Amino acid sequence: MKLLVIYIVHAICIPCFSFDVPGKDLPLTLDYYKSTCPTVFDVVKKEMECIVKEDPRNAAILIRLHFHDCFVQGCDGSVLLDETETFQGEKKASPNINSLKGYKIVDRIKNIIESECPGVVSCADLLTISARDATILVGGPYWDVPVGRKDSKTASYEFATSNIPTPEEGLISIISKFHNQGLSVEDMVALSGAHTIGKAQCRNFRSRIYGDFHVTSALNPVSETYLASLREICPASSGEGGSNVTAMDNVTPNLFDNSIYHTLMRGEGLLNSDQEMYTSMFGIQTRRIVSKYAEDQVAFFEQFSKSMVKMGNILNSESFVDGEVRRSCRFVNT
User: Which pLDDT belongs to residue 290?
Assistant: First the structure.
């Protein structure tokens, strides 16, 4: 891995990282669309600039959508498929329903790509590129995106329910889920750093703020004020305010930086799954990594870039046999 150059985006210095694509047999390349759709990266970038300008939260939405796609039968666009009378998709699985967004954004970009290069660029690739550009546009690092994925004709409600880590999950279970995808503990801590942008729903942090939040934050007066504000947003009753949202990083919520790790070190992590990385009794290794990224943002950016490439390389082998390039990301071609 090597630091190549510094790009300026919205007056923020953005490190650019380039990595070798691991595995000589991996069917992904950086120039896959060089002759068939050479403008794809520029088109996605231009549209993403508009999308993030419209609402900075869209950056987090697309990164999360990419994550949820890759953790279920690989990065194959299966999360984008709509339910039909004869097809069960992943959108209604518990980690996704009433929570995962961004489908209309993907439709918007896909329509533009299809007008330029019909039937060429897969939805899986489009989502992967969009997640990278989303990161850059809110201050995060650049990395090269290998492309050449195919869209699956299948989805897995079962794996969407079981494979994706949940906000209230314990550290050991989350590590296991990352390990099952070929991702290390360092990958897990780095990828969780994406929570430095975006928001969480009350239903996903209620148990945390009425549970051990006051313990992990050590009754710090400033933390007590923050906790009080969270409880105003999220009532204790499970029947109230479940869809109310607040930023996971309350310091720089629209900037991709290492602030989330400082939040965890203060014991103020909004999600239990995040705070566990620093305060769990099983978190000796994760605590060290959190501290490292809190101290060194460049180290975080470099590992985040590497881990995003690694996650993006989780492939559905079946899609390379009978996959396709969908005309609409919501439906299998007919």
Answer: 98
